[in-house]
Design a protein that fits this description.
This protein is an alpha/beta fold and 225 residues long. The protein has six helices and nine strands, in the order βαβββαβαβαβαββα.
Length: 225
């Protein structure tokens, strides 16, 4: 999979993709992440990518021309399945969205800034708008990193245990069950006996019941009951 991220602050994205699972995905050539500086597509000597908004009001707006130039330059070299804009008023990111995106080949992600992008970009260039939560951040770089991380870990071959992602929270609209590791007993705190039984069928049933119970208690909105 190839993901191209358009940003005015590429330095904010240097670290997230150079460690842990995403680093491994890149080293295995399973994921290619390119961070593109929008200012390289500005049309004046000052590399300006924002301007005052028509009609007045506080805050600057990302200009249409640099973004359009950047997208069109990328599209001249390969096709893209989605052009995604990270914005607080987009569709709230969830696991089903992430699952679908992980099946694609090429994605562009645009990081918003200031008061957002010129609406003409949203109307004519963007194919999908995504939010990571009902709050506002300084820019779209952190949300873009979240999205890439959520997608990247689902790519076949990225995780050491291919079944691991299937038991993450929000798969099948359930939270993950509680997990334990050694030591078996810490002070007076013990591991549930079922997990030590070696009976995989009963362990699976226990985990499912725990997932349903935890979801009902903490996120009942996920259950269709």
């Amino acid at each position: 999979m190839r993901i191209d991220i358009i940003t005015v602050l590429p330095e904010l994205l240097e670290s997230p993709f150079n460690h842990s699972i995403l680093k491994r995905a890149k080293e295995k050539n399973l994921l290619e992440v390119n961070v593109i500086n929008l200012r390289d597509f500005a049309t004046n000597k000052h590399k300006q990518v924002d301007d005052y908004q028509y009609g007045g009001g506080a805050g600057m707006v990302m200009m249409i021309e640099p973004i359009a130039n950047c997208i069109e330059s990328l599209k001249s070299k390969q096709d893209y399945d989605e052009v995604i804009y990270m914005t607080p008023d987009g569709e709230l990111l969830d696991q089903p969205i992430t699952n679908k995106l992980s099946l694609l080949k090429n994605i562009i992600i645009i990081c918003g800034h200031y008061k957002g992008v010129d609406e003409r970009i949203r109307n004519h260039f963007i194919t999908k708008e995504i939010s990571i939560g009902n709050y506002v951040l300084s820019g779209g770089e952190l949300p873009a990193a979240v999205l890439v991380d959520a997608i990247g870990r689902l790519l076949p071959g990225v995780l050491n245990d291919e079944s691991s992602a299937l038991f993450d929270s929000f798969q099948d609209n359930l939270l993950a069950p509680p997990v334990y590791t050694r030591p078996e007993k810490f002070r007076d705190l013990t591991v549930p006996e079922i997990l030590l039984s070696g009976d995989n069928k009963k362990i699976d049933e226990w985990r499912l019941n725990q997932s349903v119970q935890r979801t009902r208690e903490r996120r009942p909105d996920l259950l269709n009951e």
